[in-house]
Amino acid sequence: MRKERIWSLKDTEMYIEEIRLLLMVYKIKDSFKLKKELFIYQRTGSVYEFYEFTGKVLGEGGFGQVHEVKEKDTGRLLACKQIPRSKIRNQMRFINEVLALKNCDHPNIVKLYEVFEEEHDVFLIQEKLNGGELFDYITNRDYLTEAEAAKIFSQIIKSLIYCHKMKLTHRDLKPENFMFKSSKPNSTLKLIDFGYARIFQKEPNDGKAKILRMRSKVGTENFMAPEMILRNYSSSCDIWAAGVILYIMLCGFYPFEGEDEEETFRLIENIEYDFDDEVFDSISDEAKDLISKILTPEKDRITLEQVLEHPWIIKNLEEPDDGAINTNLIDRLKKFSKSTKLRKAVATLIATQVTDRSVFESTNAFNKIDTNKDGYITLDELERGMASHPTQVKHIMDQVDTDKNEKINYNEFIAATLKDKTLKNCFSINKAFDFFDKNKDGQIDKDELQEILQDSDIDRVETNIIKGILLECDVNNDGVIDKKEFFRCMSLKRQDP
Predict the structure, then answer these.
(1) SS3 at position 432
(2) Which of 265, 295, 316 represents a domain boundary (last residue)?
(3) What would the 3-class secondary structure string for 299-339 be?
(4) Is 81 annotated as belonging to a binding site?
(5) Does the keyword Repeat apply (predicted)?
(6) Are 469 and 405 in the same domain?
(7) Phi-psi region of 73 (alpha: psi -120 to 50; beta: other; left: phi over 0)
């Protein structure tokens, strides 16, 4: 009997239009491009070879359990989402989650480190978020102060602005799908679980983008927008759900909750909620005004950008607005701009794997420079951020923008501002070498460079790009890069013509 071929994530990616649209977000300008998703490890070996399962279950995801695992080489504790293939009945939903996480690059979105595909299960290795769910944070306190709610809510909105910039709508926003990085005060909040995520923009052959109306009624009933219940909605459904979360944070209960699902949906469709509870007596008019402008019919609902500009948000946030960046980070940006292509590729790889704690300074600087909070740094924003440090800002922008989308993404900024001790850490460099050395023969050849640096939007990486990388690093001219040459290349500067 012929053995049935096992479905593979890579196979599915080739044929699903949703995935092609996600990849088409990036614009082609230069054939040497470094994208974060190129460096998300995708293994076919056993997850148990690299990770030890501690026995602690962290929670339930959209498809399966989330386990705590320990990385054998480093002892680092991470989260592993185990997804039985037998439960993947909706392949599109599963692919949406994996690819959304591979493409998403924002401080308020959970990090995906690597993917293991095995015969019976798929394992997603993600950062471990130790601070617990926003849901538990609220219920343990009954409700939050306005200042605290505003700080948390602004992070929710920033994550959504980025997702919508990526033409991705989450569709299942609720307090359970936001987790804190740690239990420390003012910890970063991160969006998780992209199982219902959906692209809402179509790229037809004529190049004219078309915004799609969505029809599937998905997610959690108390957070569904009226238009979602009617099965005709846009990405604005995420804004509505965020408004419901804000209401809950301020009072501790749902704005729409009937005796059963039918009654809940009726309340939502009629937008029947109020501020009559005594807890709202102490809530400011500005907070109620913001909620009222979100929990309203789709045509009247304010945008995510308008939410951040609302007086209640501005009044309660104590964020500096100078956009300044310190001298140390400026020096690292300059050094990165002069790096070899291979060093930039390795920095991009390491940046996908580092912990938030090790890049705390860089993350703060990124958030400070990104004044419109869309998850990208434009040339204008970079010029303002570096105003007190006269330098070649345009040149730095061109060199740090390694995926050539004419702006600096979060991972690019982290890669360009890594400390030398992080970038040249012996373990990190060895792990990076192993990533490039696909056939594990102790050297990196042109075919391996070609495979890793392959751009998803073009047929191949230009031959001269590969030759250039070899020329920079191949000291003995044998056509390959051995480990000694690899380490040496990490200390080299690019030789400009």
Answers:
(1) helix
(2) 316
(3) HHCCCHHHHHCCHHHHHHCCCCCCCCCCHHHHHHHHHHHCE
(4) yes
(5) yes
(6) yes
(7) alpha
The sign of the CA dihedral 109, 114, 119, 120 is: negative
pLDDT in tens, 292-320: 999 999 999 999 999 999 999 999 986 65
Domain contains 481: yes
71-85 tens-digit pLDDT: 998 888 999 988 887
Q: Rg of the chain's alpha carbons, rounded to an integer?
A: 23
Identify whether the C-beta of residue 396 lies closer than 8 Å to the C-beta of residue 337: yes
pLDDT for res 492: 60
Q: How many domains are contained in the chain?
A: 3
For residues 104-132, give the mean pLDDT: 89
Please give the residue range of the domain that contains residue 408. Answer: 327-489
Active-site residue, from 11, 30, 142, 172:
172
* 365-424 confidence digits (pLDDT tens): 999 999 888 899 999 999 988 887 767 899 999 999 988 889 999 999 999 999 888 877
Same-domain pairing of 414 and 271: no
Burial class of residue 473, CB neighbours in 10 A (0-12, 13-18, 19+): buried
Q: Judge if 24 and 115 occupy the same domain.
A: yes
Q: Judge if 116 and 146 occupy the same domain.
A: no
Q: Is the pLDDT of residue 151 over 60?
A: yes
Closest Cα partner for 353 from 466, 461, 430?
Answer: 430
| Range in 10-14, 126-130, 176-180, 254-258 with the lowest mean pLDDT | 10-14
CATH of the domain at 102: 3.30.200.20
Q: Tell whether 79 and 140 lie within a shared domain.
A: no
Domain membership flag for residue 495? no
The amino acid that residue 428 corresponds to is S
Most confident region among 28-42, 216-230, 368-382 by mean pLDDT: 216-230
pLDDT at 458: 37
Residue 212, strand partner residues:
none
Same domain, 19 and 165: no
Kindly report the pTM of this predicted structure: 0.81
CB under 8 Å to 316, separation ≥6 — which residues? 146, 147, 149, 150, 151
- What CATH number corresponds to the domain at position 366? 1.10.238.10
Phi and psi, residue 62, nearest 5°: -65, -20
Alpha helix segments (H runs only) across 222-271: 226-229, 236-251, 261-269
Q: Which of 260, 287, 316 is the last residue of a domain?
A: 316
